[in-house]
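Subject: for your reference before the review

Hello V.,

The reviewers asked for a structural picture of the protein, and I figured it would be easier to keep everything in one thread rather than splitting it across files. Below is the amino acid sequence we used in the manuscript, unchanged from the supplementary table.
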Amino acid sequence: MPNLYGRNMSRHEIETASGSLGHAAGVRLMSLSDGLERGIRLLEFRSGTGLRFTVLIDRAMDIADCEYRGFGIGWHSPAGFRHPGLHEYEGEGGLGWLRSFSGLMVTCGLDHILFMYDAAAENYVYGPRETVRQSIHGRVGTIPAELTGYGERWDGDRCVLWAEGVVTQGTVFGEHLKLHRRIEIDVGSNDIRLHDRVVNRGFYRTPHMFCYHVNVGHPVLEEGARYLAPISDVVWAAHADSYHAQNVGYQTMPKPQFGFHEQVWQHELAAEPSGEVPVALVNDRLGLGFMVTTRKDQFPCQYEWQNLQAGQYAVGIEPSTNHVLGQEAARERDELIWLEHGDAREYDTVFSVLPDAAAIAREEARIGAIAVQPTEAYPGLSGNFVPLGTRP
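And here is what came back from the structure prediction:
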C-alpha cells in the first residue's frame, strides 16, 4: 500500500482523492528540445515521496536527473545530456566518451570497460579486422534503446511504475549483444530497482565486461559527506605514487577543489549472507544519502571515483564485473567473460534514497555489520586482486 503524504493509502482512497494517479506519482514520456540535448526521448518517474528521476531512452535507458524533495542527487557535468547522434566514439584518442559523460548513472560495456584497449579480433573470423579498437568504457552508453513499454501496474493496493527497453550493440563481422533493461519503483517508495540482462544474439564468441558509473553530486556531495562501504581490503589506488599529495582520503569528502586530479580506488567489499553489497554516500548535515545495492556474484569488483574538481564535483560508486586492471589483464588472468550464442548475464541493482538521519544510521549499522571499513583516510594498499576464477 503506497505511503503518500504521510499515510498509507489504498487504491480506492487514492482514486477517490483524484481522477488520476498522476497528481501524486507516475511515469510519462517526454523529449528534450534544445541545444546538445535536442531530440532525446526521456521518461520522467515520480514516486510520490518527492523522488523524481529521468531515464534517457536514447542513451541506453540510463538515469539522468535524480532529485529528492528539491535536493539534487544525480551529477550534472559540463557535457550535459548530449544527443547520441553527436557522439564520436573514437574521438580524442578514445576519450571522446567524456563529452557525453553526465547523469546519475552511465552504463559501461557491453564488451569493454575502463581505459582504451585494442582487443584481438580473431574470434570474429574476419581478416581485415585484426583488432577491435575500444575507447574508454565502451559503446553502450550512447546507443538509443528500443522502448518496449512503460506505465503503471496495480496489484491489489500496490502500484509499480515501470519501463522496459532493449539496447542493441552490433556490427557486421563483430559483436551482436543486446541489453534488456527494466526499471521499476513502487509508488510511495524511495527504492529504484534495475534489472539488466545482457545476451549474445550473434554467433561469434564475444567478450563481455560491464560496469555502472553511478555519480552522486551536490548537495549530497559536499564538505563532510561520507563514503560508507563494507570494505574488507583496500586493494589499489590510481594515485598510489602520490597518496597524500592532494590531502583527500577515501572516506570523508572535501569542498570543491582547484587543480584536482581524479582519484580512483578499488576496494574489496564483503557481502551479506544474501549476497548483497550496499554502498552509500551520506550527508549528515542534510540528513540525506544515496545507496547502491548490488550482488557480489554479479558484480564482484567495486571502484570509488573521486572527481572533486570545482565545476565537475562528483563521487562515483562503480560496481564492475572485472578488476580495475582492465581488459588486457582480464584476458591474461583468464577472468574475461565470454558469451557464446544465447549466453546471458543478469544484474540486479537497487538505488535507494536515504531520506533522513534515521535511515542513514540504519544503513550505516547494516554496512558495519558486514565489514568494518578502515578508519584511516589513507589505508595501506594490499595489491591483492582476488582471483575471479575462470570466466565462462
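For the response letter, the relevant points are probably these. The radius of gyration is 21 Å. The helical segments are 11-17, 327-332, 357-370.

Happy to draft the paragraph if you're swamped.

O.
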